[in-house]
């Protein structure tokens, strides 16, 4: 039997009706979303469930946490069977839920089976203590410690730790939705977000000096309000509403400020750390985290401050568990020996062109759809399939010495195939329903797919192997080469190649028609075996010259889309380390250039854009005068570490200025600027926009 749920009335402004609802909760069915799961001291776990207004706790005392081990001492298992926190129904050789001797596949190739003992414990604390002792004393080989035992428990429960559930008065839980559905109802967690500001902008790092103002947004089932640029002294007036939410986002270095104002963040089940000025808001972060939680079955609390590798690897580990493939505590895969020529040939990234600087008109950018994950799945690339000495059916990877086992689907390809299917379904739903949340979910899945390639080459990843990474990069280069040959063979010009993107143009500079483009895409898909999509259609695109080369920077460009919007990549104005005055100058110039469509209009707009830079140059020059009217905050910029301004650096992001004697923190106050430094930054920002060709040279050429 489960314990009865315990009511936690977090909103102290309940009406009489809602108070009565709370008192009667034990006899009613409570419907809400799981927001957290924690182990209980006396065994099992406690689930925290919320409906956005009220939170209840209910326990799962029957929850079991498995210890997988291969003993090195013959008397170890009989001794462990007497452990007080072991499931009393445990008995070796059985087939039920109790501990059994099981057959699992052994790494690294998973071609041989071995017997391991599975011991179910009632207490996670006792299991963890025993596990550490067994490992330290070398008494047993311990397996399947990754991911955490709470995640493994939810695998066995068959619903994620953010599922919508119905909790009866006796604590019995029933899922109130399909756990595997992509169009699930977004959990109705109540949330609040706090941002702090000083004279120079949003502050993220508390070092003893309190900020001047704050912004607050609160979203619950009963109310939604926003406060802008309120004095810090007024923060305490919002303590009750903020402390009662399910999720709170704020810079965690300001915890002391919150506590002093009467806002206790420790009462909030889930806190999100706002670390950078460009961090996503709480609403967007929750959509992403919930999607990752439903994919990996990892609690939100464990995902909130983890890297993207946690949900990604947990998803891969789930596939391994389903196959009964053991996961070791340490990575047993060592990089194969290579000669120097082999290392030079294999250790390369994706194909990257250095385009010719200039303005190019009527350009189309084609992207391969999920190129790296698709190659991994199509070629069955996984740590245990690459260079497997036991494989009976293999395929050689072009331009490498590696082979891939084609006789058995790998763990990584299977895990990615589920993500690819899920993302495609979410994209379709987002288009059909026009739902912003569905679009954010598919983006969250996209991030996992993008990260999957990087983690494949991370030697400490549970499912990483450098040779597998090399296979993917080699296949990507080969695929793009085929695409380039097909484009040129069809009579088009390739302007630029950037890993999985190809910029194309007609040789006469005329626009590429829709039917013409569809035919070309079909030709490329036939040549490469991968799907492509139109990433962007440009009226014009500019590849600006690298300051240290006659060629353009490969990953910096800007252009006007056919829709009239601008697309910016790698420019100063999109970087958080760019001073505001430089950003303003570049954005103003870009807005002028964005009005142009034809070569003639672009040439004229370029001259007007240069005038915008001259105006901001005047602001910088006047800033050093005693009666300067240029606001000082325009010269601040945000960097991570701040090692040039603070001895030893800082952990986090800090706003700085560049003075005559060096960099200094903005929190010290405004102490002047190094005019020459900011003028050089302004000149560099203009060089990024200038096609470096006189108008008469690029007019009408289409490139």
UniProtKB/TrEMBL annotation:
<dbReference type="Pfam" id="PF00136">
    <property type="entry name" value="DNA_pol_B"/>
</dbReference>
<dbReference type="InterPro" id="IPR006134">
    <property type="entry name" value="DNA-dir_DNA_pol_B_multi_dom"/>
</dbReference>
<dbReference type="InterPro" id="IPR042087">
    <property type="entry name" value="DNA_pol_B_thumb"/>
</dbReference>
<dbReference type="InterPro" id="IPR050240">
    <property type="entry name" value="DNA_pol_type-B"/>
</dbReference>
<dbReference type="GO" id="GO:0003677">
    <property type="term" value="F:DNA binding"/>
</dbReference>
<feature type="domain" description="DNA-directed DNA polymerase family B multifunctional">
    <location>
        <begin position="347"/>
        <end position="490"/>
    </location>
</feature>
<dbReference type="InterPro" id="IPR006172">
    <property type="entry name" value="DNA-dir_DNA_pol_B"/>
</dbReference>
<keyword id="KW-0239">DNA-directed DNA polymerase</keyword>
<keyword id="KW-0238">DNA-binding</keyword>
<dbReference type="GO" id="GO:0006261">
    <property type="term" value="P:DNA-templated DNA replication"/>
</dbReference>
<keyword id="KW-0548">Nucleotidyltransferase</keyword>
<dbReference type="GO" id="GO:0003887">
    <property type="term" value="F:DNA-directed DNA polymerase activity"/>
</dbReference>
<dbReference type="InterPro" id="IPR023211">
    <property type="entry name" value="DNA_pol_palm_dom_sf"/>
</dbReference>
<keyword id="KW-0808">Transferase</keyword>
<comment type="similarity">
    <text>Belongs to the DNA polymerase type-B family.</text>
</comment>
<dbReference type="GO" id="GO:0000166">
    <property type="term" value="F:nucleotide binding"/>
</dbReference>
<protein>
    <recommendedName>
        <fullName>DNA-directed DNA polymerase</fullName>
        <ecNumber>2.7.7.7</ecNumber>
    </recommendedName>
</protein>
<dbReference type="InterPro" id="IPR043502">
    <property type="entry name" value="DNA/RNA_pol_sf"/>
</dbReference>
């Amino acid at each position: 039997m489960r314990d009865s749920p315990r009511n936690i009335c977090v909103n102290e402004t309940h009406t009489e009706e809602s108070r009565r609802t709370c008192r009667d909760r034990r006899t009613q069915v409570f419907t809400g979303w799981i927001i957290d799961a924690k182990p209980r001291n006396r065994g099992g776990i406690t689930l925290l469930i919320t409906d956005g207004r009220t939170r209840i706790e209910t326990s799962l005392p029957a929850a079991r946490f498995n210890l997988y081990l291969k003993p090195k001492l013959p008397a170890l298992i009989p001794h462990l069977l007497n452990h007080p926190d072991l499931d009393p129904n445990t008995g070796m050789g059985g087939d039920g839920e109790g501990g059994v001797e099981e057959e699992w596949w052994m790494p690294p190739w998973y071609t041989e089976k071995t017997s391991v003992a599975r011991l179910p414990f009632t207490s996670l604390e006792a299991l963890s203590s025993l596990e550490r002792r067994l490992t330290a004393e070398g008494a047993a080989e311990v397996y399947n410690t990754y991911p955490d035992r709470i995640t493994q428990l939810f695998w066995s429960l068959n619903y994620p730790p953010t599922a919508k559930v119905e909790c009866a008065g006796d604590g019995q839980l029933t899922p109130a939705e399909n756990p595997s559905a992509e169009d699930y109802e977004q959990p109705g967690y109540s949330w609040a977000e706090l941002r702090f500001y000083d004279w120079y902008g949003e502050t993220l790092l508390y070092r003893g000096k309190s900020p001047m103002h704050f912004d607050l947004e609160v979203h619950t089932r009963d109310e939604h309000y926003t406060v802008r640029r309120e004095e810090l002294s007024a923060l305490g007036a919002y303590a009750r509403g903020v402390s009662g939410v399910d999720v709170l986002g704020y810079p965690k270095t300001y915890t002391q400020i919150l506590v002093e104002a009467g806002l206790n963040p420790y009462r909030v089940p889930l806190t999100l750390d706002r670390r950078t000025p460009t961090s996503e808001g709480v609403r967007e972060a929750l959509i992403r985290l919930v999607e990752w939680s439903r994919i990996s079955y990892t609690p939100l609390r464990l995902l909130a401050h983890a890297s993207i590798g946690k949900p990604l690897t947990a998803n891969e580990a789930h596939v391994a568990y389903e196959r009964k493939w053991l996961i070791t505590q340490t990575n047993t895969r060592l990089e194969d020996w290579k000669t120097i020529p082999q290392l030079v040939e294999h250790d390369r990234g994706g194909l990257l062109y250095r385009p010719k600087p200039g303005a190019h008109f009527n350009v189309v950018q084609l992207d391969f759809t999920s190129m790296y994950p698709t190659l991994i799945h199509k070629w069955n690339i996984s740590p245990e399939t690459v260079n497997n000495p036991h494989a009976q059916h293999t395929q050689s990877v072009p331009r490498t010495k590696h082979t891939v086992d084609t006789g058995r689907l790998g763990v990584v390809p299977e895990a990615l195939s589920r993500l690819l299917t899920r993302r495609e379904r979410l994209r379709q739903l987002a288009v059909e329903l026009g739902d912003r949340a569905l679009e954010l979910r598919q983006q969250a899945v996209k991030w996992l797919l993008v990260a999957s390639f990087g983690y494949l080459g991370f030697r400490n990843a549970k499912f990483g192997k450098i040779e597998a990474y090399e296979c993917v990069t080699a296949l990507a280069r080969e695929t793009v080469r085929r695409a380039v040959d097909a484009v040129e063979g069809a009579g088009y010009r390739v302007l630029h190649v950037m890993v999985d993107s190809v910029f194309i143009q007609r040789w006469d500079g005329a626009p590429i028609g829709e039917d013409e483009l569809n035919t070309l895409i079909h030709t490329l898909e036939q040549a490469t075996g991968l799907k492509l999509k139109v990433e962007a259609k440009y009226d014009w695109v500019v590849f600006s010259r690298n300051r240290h080369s006659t060629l353009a920077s490969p990953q910096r460009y800007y252009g006007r889309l056919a829709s009239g919007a601008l697309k910016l990549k790698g420019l100063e104005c999109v970087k958080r380390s760019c001073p505001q005055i430089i950003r303003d100058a570049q954005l103003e110039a870009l807005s002028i250039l964005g009005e142009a469509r034809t070569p003639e209009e672009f040439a004229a707009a370029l001259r007007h854009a240069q005038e915008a830079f001259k105006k901001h140059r005047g602001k910088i020059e006047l800033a050093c005068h005693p009666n300067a009217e240029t606001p000082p905050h325009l010269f601040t910029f945000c960097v991570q570490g701040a090692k040039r301004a603070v001895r030893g650096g800082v952990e986090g992001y800090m706003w700085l200025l560049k003075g005559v004697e060096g960099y200094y923190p903005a929190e010290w106050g405004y102490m002047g600027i190094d005019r020459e430094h900011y003028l050089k930054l302004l000149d560099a920002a203009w060089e990024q926009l200038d096609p470096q060709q006189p108008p008469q040279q690029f007019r009408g050429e289409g490139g």
